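Sequence in, structure out. Go.
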Amino acid sequence: MEQRLEFARAHFHWTVNDWSQVVWMDKSLFELGKPVTQKRVWQTPEQKLDLDSMAVNHQSGRQLLMIWGAICGPIQSKLIIIPPRQRREVYFIDNVYKPGLLPFMDKLVEVGVAVNCEELTLMEDGAPIHTSLASQQWHEDHQIQKFAWPPSSPDLNPIENLWYKMNFVITNLFNPKMMDKLRKAIYIVWDTMPFNHLEALLVSMPARMQMVVDKNRALF
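Output:
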């Protein structure tokens, strides 16, 4: 809670324009045939889910896809489906950072969001794949600035709302019954996400900081 409050206070006076230079990236699991819920699992950094254990589970019959994406204001990265058994930190640089994050940050510079990548700030959670020595070195080599993100704070990350909306649309509009249909639906919904929805997520950031500060006042 203290880290959340410190983060909110440090960014309390940030404007929407300030937040427009933050790159929000995240991973999400999409399960075939699973109804949409907003269930959360709270964990300490030491209790992070083993991503390999979230691959297709043949014993239980669960079929899962792990995806990665990033947004910066109303602009989206390309969507990446992370292969099963290649979800640990040793693969993350080649599977996500190089083909997904780096081209996206270059694109943001090209369209004028920032003069260079150093003006952008990356938000990624404290999962081991993001904090490994190899990942840290990769960020340093590419001069990527990162937030000191507070733990247990998915509510402060607007891309979490995007995952929920995608899951809702996929379930109710496509209702895929096969994995190839689920994969296709994920790409379609991501690529056609309304501009105004992405813009609304950006505009919500000052209110998210206000929420944390107000909640702390109520407690004390």
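Check: The longest helix spans residues 89-110. Residues 2-219 form a domain with the Nucleotidyltransferase; domain 5 fold (CATH 3.30.420.10).
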